Amino acid sequence: MLIPINSNQISKLIPAVGTGNQYKFALGNPEKILQRLIISSIGGIITFLISISQTGNQTYNLWLLLCVIFFLYIIWGPILESSRRNLKYRKYKFYSIFDGIVSDIYKTEKVESSREQSNKQGRLEIVQNKRTWLILELEDEDGYLEKISFPLENKHSQIRIGSKIRCLVTSNDRNFSRDYFLTDAWLPDINLWVGEYPYLLRPAFKEICYIYLNKFVGDNNF
What is the DSSP letter of 35? Predict the structure, then answer.
């Protein structure tokens, strides 16, 4: 079931500025952190050297400011990335709560990174770093909706076919017949959140689910 909600509720569910959970996700793995650290260090050092050469000139303060910005990139980079994700989602026109079930569960392997490495014969070969992802297919009384995928963790072993699941769906089509997008999802029976990226403010989403589901369907088993 898709239950429309007012667009003014979105600011309560998805903030313009990234939250702590979103920052943690955007921060990424050690490899991504190292890349940001390298960019931050190189950019900071170069702009610092330029600022020294501009001492006494009108551009000195500008280069010094750029130096500080580069050195702080490792901090503000993830904030900017998570905020951009949120704003991209908030640009849609129509929003609904999806209340349905998990209709199917399966796994797949995704390549997260790859590198070239010499084998015992001295030949270069590509070594891939793979990770197992879990895919959930969602449906309600109207049929199949969509699927969501996320990296598999031990806690996901609790998920079963038929488990109740809720998420937010958005689209620029009022009827949600095409070009719609799903957020992370909540399985209320086991109080488990799943998804690749934590879009939703979780306490706010639970509260809005309670209000709208009781209003429209009288969900006594919330």
Answer: H
> What is the C-alpha to C-alpha distance for residues 60 and 51, in angstroms, rounded to an integer?
5
Do residues 157 and 134 touch, judged by C-beta distance below 8 A? no
- Give every residue of the chain whose pLDDT is below 50, as ranges: 220
Q: Specify the pTM.
A: 0.75
Tokens 């959140």 found at: 193
From the CB of residue 66, how many other CB atoms can be counted at a distance below 10 Å?
A: 18
Beta strand extents in 18-163 (DSSP E only): 94-118, 124-140, 143-151
- Give the chain's largest Cα–Cα span: 72
Helix (H) or strand (E) holding 49: helix 30-53
pLDDT by residue (tens digit) across 51-97?
787 776 777 778 778 888 887 878 788 888 888 888 888 888 888 99
What b-and-e string marks burial along 110-129, b requiring 16 or more CB atoms within 10 Å of the CB?
A: eeeeeeeeeeeeeeeeeeee
Indicate the domain borders of the chain. Answer: 2-15+94-216, 24-90
222 contacts 26 by C-beta, under 8 angstroms: no
